[in-house]
Amino acid sequence: MQYYSGSISTTYPASEHGGRQTVSYQGQVPVELLLDVYVDTDPYDSASDHCRDHIDTLAGAVVATETAEVLAKKQSAQKIGDAVIDGFFSYIRQDLTQQISQLSAKAEALLLELVEQRKACIKKQQQMADDYSRITNRYSKLFDDLDHELSSRIHQLDLPTFSTVNHISCTVTRPVDTELLGIATISQQETARVDSIVACSTIKNRTKGMIDDTRRFLRGVYKLTNSINDMLTNDDCGTCFVPVAYVESVGDNGQPRRDILVNEGSEVCRSKQALEQRFMSQDLEWAAISREAEDTVDAFFNDTLANSGVDRRVAATMVALKKQNELKTIKK
């Protein structure tokens, strides 16, 4: 396809509107062209080969550079790691050396102090041993003198008795070379019968006493058994006495507190309120318990407290609280 375009200038005769004008034109005409084109690609191919060689060289250089960089980074990291590890262990070694030096100094100071304390303890022990020996000697002599003085006074108080004992001892333990040895041999046969009679009498007396004690014990057991059987089988109404303790105290808040203490298995547990009203009645007259009853209560209290296993301070506090209060009973 062939394109064409252009312009033509024309003139026209003179007139009212005469002059010159330009007319443009354009268009296209199909044209068939047969051309043989020959292209020389040898320079391009040579340039391409040369560029490829340069690219291969560049790639090898990049790979070598990258390998060298990786190796350099690895060597640098190894050096940094070695430096950090060496620095850390050097710091730890210096710190441990410093601590060992400080602890060695403290240990030596403590060892010197312990040596001085040991010398002081040995000196104190020697002084205490000397004091103990001196005090022991002084009080041993004092107690020996006291024993001798007491023995002399006791002998003076019971001088006839001691004289008799000494005389009997001398008589019983006769020496072998005395003339009374034959008399003792003869009198032994005469006194043997009397000694056996006395021993038999003593045994009989003790046996009789044991039999009497056994008889009294069995009689008491029999009476107790009969009394228990009567109480269990007798349906008659009567009066029973049950021990009851009424405790009145003041609490921490200042309010009065009243407690009824009875045996848990007793029937009185069901009527604690009635007992409390009875104890609070104004008609009751309270009086201190007798000395004998107070001694009995104290003995029971002390025995129970001793067998309870409580702490000593708690026991002392309980005893002090008991002494600060007074036990009272209802007048009959």
Structure description:
This protein is an alpha+beta fold and 332 residues long. It folds into three domains: 59-175; 188-232; 245-330, no CATH class. The chain is built from six helices and six strands. It has helices spanning 42-157, 159-172, 181-233, 272-279, 291-308, 312-324; strands at 2-12, 19-29, 245-250, 256-261, 286-288, 328-330. The strands form three sheets. The protein has a two-stranded antiparallel ribbon with strand order 1-2. Strands 3-4 form a two-stranded antiparallel ribbon. Strands 5-6 form a two-stranded antiparallel sheet.
Which labels suit this protein?
single chain; alpha+beta; 3 domains; elongated
User: Shape from CA axes?
Assistant: elongated
Can you give the mean pLDDT?
Answer: 77
Domains counted in the coordinates: how many?
Answer: 3
Report the structural category: alpha+beta
Q: What proportion strand?
A: 5-15%
Helicity level, as a percent range?
A: 55-70%
Oligomer: single chain
Calculate Rg over CA atoms. Answer: 68 Å
Q: List low-confidence stretches.
A: none
The run of helices and strands is EEHHHEEHEHHE
Briefly, what is this?
This protein is 67% helix and 12% strand. By secondary structure, it is of the alpha+beta class. The termini are far apart.
Layout of secondary structure:
Layout: E1 2-12, E2 19-29, H1 42-157, H2 159-172, H3 181-233, E3 245-250, E4 256-261, H4 272-279, E5 286-288, H5 291-308, H6 312-324, E6 328-330
Antiparallel strand pairs: 1-2, 3-4, 5-6
